[in-house]
Design a protein that fits this description.
mainly alpha, about 0% strand, single chain
């Protein structure tokens, strides 16, 4: 009797043809929270002093609050897209492995995007000989993307294949995601604070 009740309660928390469980979805959501919110906080803090000097500190706080809310909205959008993509993964995978794979792919893509943004923020440029070479080819963007895209593909494919084929790699990635989830919970708390600040600003100004 207890076994039947346990089986029923377990199935109640499964979604989309048992491809996801509540815990796997929640973990995937927290993984999505992590890089998006880190980047939102970094960019908001970069403009904090500039806004505070020209207006008020309270306006700068509002800027960070809006950044957190936009980050939350972006997180929800990315999470939904990842969940839909996960429906096309093999049926024999369990919910945990599916969530780990989607989270790994997302973190790899985010890492490349952040590196590209940091390179731009720091005013990084290619060396003159390399620029001259790219111009001489007549198709500089094709050459750049022809190098970058295979690197992105390999950096995403290698850990993904290892995760699917090796349980030890799966356990390591799951451990990393658990640590990420702790920080993500803190960022969600900041989202709540940001919503409260914006609400207060809306009724006091």
């Amino acid at each position: 009797m207890e076994t039947q009740i346990g089986a029923q309660s377990k199935s109640e928390f499964r979604f989309w043809g048992e491809k996801y469980t509540f815990s796997s979805l929640f973990q995937l959501f927290l993984v999505c929270v992590f890089p998006i919110h880190i980047w939102a906080i970094l960019t908001a803090l970069r403009d904090f002093s500039w806004v505070a000097e020209r207006t008020r500190v309270w306006d700068a706080v509002g800027l960070i609050s809006y950044a957190m809310i936009y980050a939350l909205m972006e997180t929800i959008s990315v999470f939904i897209v990842l969940c839909i993509l996960g429906l096309f993964t093999p049926k024999q995978w369990n919910a945990e492995r599916r969530a780990l794979l989607l989270g790994t792919l997302f973190l790899v893509v985010c890492l490349w995007a952040i590196l590209g943004q940091l390179y731009s923020f720091w005013g990084g440029t290619l060396s003159k000989p390399l620029l001259d070479f790219l111009v001489q080819t007549g198709h500089p963007l094709r050459i750049v993307w022809g190098v970058v895209l295979p690197l992105i593909f390999l950096s995403a494919a290698i850990p993904s294949i290892a995760l699917v084929t090796r349980d030890r790699v799966k356990d390591v990635i799951a451990s990393v995601f658990e640590r990420i989830s702790v920080l993500s919970a803190f960022y969600l708390l900041l989202d709540i604070v940001g919503i409260m600040i914006i609400f207060i600003r809306s009724i006091t100004e």
